[in-house]
Amino acid sequence: MKNTARRIWHFYLDGFRSMTVGRTLWVIILVKLFIMFAILRLFFFPDFLSGVAPDDEGGYVCRELIERGD
Predict the structure, then answer these.
(1) How far apart are CA 67 and CA 61, in angstroms?
(2) For a surface tag, which of 30, 34, 48, 70 has the fewest beta carbons within 10 Å of its beta carbon?
(3) In angstroms, what CA-CA distances link 22 with 3, 6, 34, 39, 46?
(4) What's the CA gap between 45 and 37, in Å, rounded?
(5) pLDDT in tens, 22-34
(6) Short-list 38, 11, 16, 36, CA closest to 26
(7) How confident is the model at residue 13 (pLDDT cuts 50, 70, 90)?
(8) Where exactly are the structural domains of the chain?
(9) What is the mean pLDDT of residues 11-39?
(10) Calpha distance 49→67 (Å, rounded)
(11) Spatial separation of the C-alpha atoms in residues 7 and 42, rounded to whole Å
(12) What is the pLDDT of residue 43?
């Protein structure tokens, strides 16, 4: 099992080392993921649980689901 994992790791490592255009594509992918998860999260996904006590988070979510479901 250990030998197989090592062979798979070296296979991917050698593949990434020999890439030329692929590195640019990976950089673009990583930048897009950073924008999606770090920057857009700040503007479009507010933290609704910030004003709720940690003990009451479950109850708050339950009440909101019930109220919005009606």
Answers:
(1) 10
(2) 70
(3) 27, 23, 18, 25, 35
(4) 10
(5) 888 889 999 999 9
(6) 16
(7) confident
(8) 2-69
(9) 87
(10) 16
(11) 41
(12) 83
What distances in angstroms separate CA 53 from CA 27, 43, 64, one per listed residue? 40, 23, 15
Token pair listed for 8: 């798979």
Residue bearing tokens 């594509």: 25
Q: Which residue, chain included where needed, has tokens 């689901």?
A: 65
Q: 52: burial class by Cβ within 10 Å (0-12, 13-18, 19+)? A: middle
Q: Provide the residue count of the chain.
A: 70
Tokens of 34: 């950073």
Residue type, 10: H
